[in-house]
Amino acid sequence: MDLPEELLYSKEHLWIRVEGARVVVGITDYAQEQLGTISALELPDLGDELEQDDSFGTIEARKTVADLYAPVSGLVVEVNTEGLDSPEIVNDDPYDSGWLLVLELADSEELKLLMSAEDYLEQVSEDMD
């Protein structure tokens, strides 16, 4: 399982890369492995305001549709249109070309509620037991 140390992680299996006042959001390698081949993404529109922990879209795989929950609050400033057209890139490259969206961060304090790679690995290990 690939787990970049420089990212932050949510309990809902999303990763966050902080880039100044913006954050890039995607699903973790563990989550895409659990889902299997991803066949569709539903993501918010540009300009949508997301609140931390609110559902902002769905990810569909062969046997399931899972809700996606905002790891932080913010304004949607970019959506991965390539991922919408070819959702399997999330399986192929979840931490680079398979990102989901970019948010203009509303409250940097919310980042403190996210997990380090080590903490996320601990959570995932408990899930696997």
Q: What does this entry look like structurally?
A:
- By secondary structure, the protein is of the alpha+beta class.
- The chain has four helices and nine strands.
- A hairpin with a 4-residue loop joins strand 1 (8-9) and strand 2.
- The radius of gyration is 13 Å and the shape is globular.
Topology:
Layout: E1 8-9, E2 14-19, E3 22-27, H1 29-35, E4 38-42, E5 49-50, E6 55-61, E7 64-69, E8 74-79, H2 81-85, H3 89-92, E9 101-105, H4 117-128
Antiparallel strand pairs: 1-2, 2-3, 3-9, 4-6, 5-8, 6-7, 8-9
H/E element order: EEEHEEEEEHHEH
Radius of gyration of CA atoms, rounded to a whole number: 13 Å
Question: What is the 3D shape?
Answer: globular
Residue-averaged pLDDT:
95
Residues in helices, as a percent range = 10-25%
Q: What key attributes describe this structure?
A:
single chain; 129 residues; 3-stranded antiparallel sheet
Write a concise synopsis of the structure shown.
This protein has 129 residues and is of the alpha+beta class. It has helices at 29-35, 81-85, 89-92, 117-128; strands at residues 8-9, 14-19, 22-27, 38-42, 49-50, 55-61, 64-69, 74-79, 101-105.
